[in-house]
Design a protein that fits this description.
The complex is a heterodimer.
Chain A: H1 6-27, H2 29-33, E1 44-48, E2 54-56, H3 78-111, H4 124-133, H5 150-163, H6 167-188, E3 192-194
Antiparallel strand pairs in A: 1-2
Chain B: H1 2-12, H2 15-28, E1 32-36, E2 48-51, E3 57-63, H3 69-74, H4 76-84, E4 100-105, H5 111-123, E5 131-134, H6 136-147, H7 155-165, H8 175-184, H9 197-220, H10 224-244, H11 253-277, H12 296-316, H13 325-339, H14 352-364, H15 368-387, H16 398-405, E6 418-419, H17 422-431, H18 435-439, H19 442-445, E7 449-455, E8 469-474, E9 479-481, H20 482-485, H21 496-500, H22 505-511, H23 518-530
Parallel strand pairs in B: 3-4, 4-5, 6-7
Antiparallel strand pairs in B: 1-2, 2-3, 7-8
The chains are: A mainly alpha, B alpha/beta.
Chain lengths: ~200, ~525
């Protein structure tokens, strides 16, 4: 073998990865929201749902490539390595985002929490129907979060600003929130010890 | 290479450190071990008493290093006791005549000393027991033979073994590394299917010797708690072998009992040192004092947790003097410092079995309310810390958690809303009818996942890490029946060898924190209520 510094290179890679991961997570809000849970032992993972049913957790592998042509090594430096890793991690997070969205889509359809907008605009009626269907936790300091692509997000924000001046819509939305809060309080009152 | 390792070990070890491996050697030669002195000079000069294969009683006096004329004179008193006084032990019949006496050293005797021994034997033939000697070369040969083929041959295992041999004895025992190394030396992998009982016994005996060689670095630094960890890992592995292959007692019990002796010896030393240093908090500072804020509280928790588990072990084994005054002193004087968080101590689930051991000890020494309050407090810490993902699960040891806390290393896993020990703690309170402690906390508890790992094979529960099994994550019932909380466990998840050595359970729990399951906690309660 030729002279090398494997430990040093490993340490530099660790530093690069830490920087890159932070940057990528900031750009991939969906994956950044998810908590990473590791399986330390065993070869199976099961969990139960609120209805008591037990399910297996299926795992899916994601991978991305980092490539460099032989000739590029002449000018290859720290910054280029960072760009390379950014692309690779970015690709990885994109795959994970797609898997996450597919999983959410499947779960939501299974639960029946789907509203078909039929390709039309995002209306007040759709918004109110959505509010009715979703699980909310008034205790959650983050409140309600909406995940949308950038274009839709801008349109939605503009619409919601208009809606906030519509008193009749506001009254309907408040009524929905009030109903949901009472429902949540009722649910929470079941969290108790009984004989 | 193994001969060099044994030679290095034998050259630098002291009599208390080679005593147990020496007993292992005698056992392999067909001796039945009757007595091993736990600490200090043996009674009537006899450190080890055995019955040889031919039925003749034997007594051994162990020494360290070369013995010259001056050294011989210093030990004369003990030697005379060794040869002059007959063995008094229920298993030794008087009609057997004189026992065989041996002076054992890991050094060499000078010719003058050998001449003195010969003269003594001639002068007192028939009056006293004949004295034989065992020196370095004979010991080395016997240990090399005993090790046999059971040593690491693959490069990866050899590297791991050497790293363990040369580890810094001041540090904590590298648990994962040591446990996995020991498991690799035993027939505990999937490929080991048709293994004879004799092979199991030899492998276990050899792994004990491996443990003895690795223990040397820690023994030299008087790192008693690392030695405790080491021997408990050995004991768990030997129980795993016995359980997996359904071995009869004769194939594993004697080796296991020697491991118990080694562990008890380490505990005796730990208690003695703690007693000497417990008057003043400053005396409990260790090593680099400038940064001891990092380790003082975890140190105090580990000391009290382990000693509590040991006290419970002794109570379960029927000892009358199981209570430890030094433990009462530490808990009374410094309990607030390390048992109750003041926001400065990063908590980890790996420490919870130690805290629970203290709670058990408090309960059985007449403080059940304090014990319940402590358990309630731990539950509150779990509920608060996991909300902010601040409580690493028990797969992260104290050091990993501290490194993360001080920004030295990153733990990327999230722990929010999950706990491996919450259920054990809740059911602990329920069994004691502390309904009010649970009722007020139940809404928050019902939001948490109870996590537990169940290995596919019961014996694998005794391993540090298990590849096959189910990791379970369950919500408790939102509306929880009080009657169901006090459930009894059909302890099918716990290996039968562990159930047959129930006093070992609390020690296993503190050293293997990720194995403290609700069933194990229930079993310890059952054990203590019977004693």
């Amino acid at each position: 073998m030729l002279p090398d510094y494997p430990r040093l290179k490993s340490d530099v890679l660790k530093k690069l990865e830490n920087t890159v991961k932070q940057q990528v997570r900031a750009n991939h809000g969906l994956v950044d929201m998810f908590r990473a849970v590791y399986t330390h032992e065993g070869d199976r993972y099961t969990y139960n749902r609120v209805d008591g049913s037990i399910h297996d957790m299926d795992s899916k592998e994601h991978s991305s490539k980092a490539e460099l042509a032989g000739t590029d090594f002449a000018t290859y430096d720290y910054n280029q390595a960072r760009e390379l890793l950014l692309r690779a991690y970015g690709d990885l997070h994109k795959q994970m985002s797609v898997t996450a969205l597919e999983t959410i889509d499947a779960v939501v359809r299974e639960a029946g929490n789907v509203i078909d907008g039929k390709g039309g605009a995002f209306t007040q009626e759709i918004w109110l129907e959505m509010l009715e269907k979703i699980e909310t936790d008034p205790d959650n300091p983050d409140g309600l979060r909406i995940l949308a692509n950038p274009e839709t997000a801008i349109k939605l924000r503009d619409e919601m600003e208009k809606w906030s001046k519509d008193q009749s819509f506001a009254a309907k939305a408040d009524a929905v929130w009030d109903r949901k809060r009472r429902k949540w309080l009722d649910q929470e009152s079941h969290r108790k010890l009984v004989d | 290479m193994i001969k060099k390792v044994i030679e290095n070990w034998l050259t630098s070890t002291k009599e208390r450190e080679y005593q147990i491996p020496f007993c292992q050697l005698l056992s392999s030669q067909g001796h039945r071990i009757l007595h091993v002195s736990s600490h200090g000079p043996g009674e009537h000069g006899k450190d080890v008493i055995t019955i040889a294969r031919d039925g003749r009683p034997c007594a051994y006096q162990l020494k360290t290093g070369d013995i010259n004329t001056g050294g011989w004179r210093q030990i004369q008193g003990e030697i005379i006791e060794l040869v002059k006084h007959r063995i008094r032990h229920p298993s030794v019949e008087k009609k057997r005549g004189w026992h065989r006496s041996y002076l054992v050293t890991n050094g060499r005797l000078t010719q003058d000393v050998k001449d003195s021994i010969n003269m003594q034997n001639d002068d007192y033939e028939g009056v006293w027991s004949h004295l034989d000697t065992i020196e370095f070369d004979e010991l080395l040969g016997d240990f090399v033979n005993l090790q046999g083929d059971f040593y690491p041959t693959e490069l990866h295992d050899t590297k791991r073994f050497l790293e363990l041999l040369l580890a810094d004895g001041n540090e904590q025992l590298p648990m994962t590394q040591f446990a996995e190394f020991l498991t690799s030396m035993l027939p505990l992998s999937e490929e080991h299917v048709n293994v004879t009982k004799t092979a199991c016994k030899r492998a276990t005996a050899s792994s004990m010797l491996m443990g003895a060689y690795i223990s040397q670095q820690y023994a030299q630094q008087k790192n008693h708690f690392a030695l405790i960890d080491l021997w408990i890992v050995f004991l768990a592995n030997s129980l795993a072998v016995a359980d997996r292959f359904r071995l009869e007692d004769k194939h594993w019990r004697s080796i296991y009992d020697l491991g118990i002796l080694a562990m008890e010896s380490a505990f005796a030393d730990a208690i003695r040192e703690t007693e000497e240093r417990s008057d003043d908090l400053q005396q409990l500072v260790e090593g680099l004092w400038v940064t001891d804020f990092v380790s003082l509280r975890p140190r105090l928790l580990k000391i009290t947790g382990y000693l509590s588990a040991y006290a419970i072990y002794r109570k379960a084994a029927g000892a009358e003097d199981w209570q430890l005054p030094v433990l009462d002193k530490l808990i009374g004087k410094y309990g607030r410092l390390f048992l109750l968080s003041n926001g400065r101590l990063p908590y980890a689930e790996a420490a919870i079995p130690q805290q629970l051991a203290v709670a058990w000890y408090m309960e059985w020494t007449g403080r059940p309310k304090d014990a319940a309050a402590l358990v309630g407090y731990i539950i509150d810490i779990i509920l608060t810390s996991t909300k902010h993902s601040n409580m690493p699960n028990p797969y992260y040891d104290t050091e990993a958690c501290l490194r993360h806390h001080y920004g030295l290393e990153v733990i990327e896993e999230a722990f929010e809303g999950r706990s491996y020990h919450l259920r054990s703690l809740v059911e602990w309170l329920a069994r004691r009818l502390w309904r009010q402690h649970i009722r007020q906390r139940w809404p928050a508890i019902s939001h948490m996942h109870y996590c537990e790992f169940l290995p596919d094979e019961k014996w694998a529960y005794l391993l540090w890490h298990c590849r096959k099994g189910e990791e379970q994550s369950r919500f408790p019932d939102q509306t929880q029946s009080w009657a169901d909380l006090k459930q009894h466990y059909v302890v099918s998840s716990i290996p039968s060898t562990l159930l047959q050595s129930p006093e070992f359970l609390p020690l296993f729990a503190v050293v293997y924190p990720h194995r403290l399951t609700p069933a194990l906690s229930w079993q310890i309660d059952e054990l203590l209520s019977r004693r």
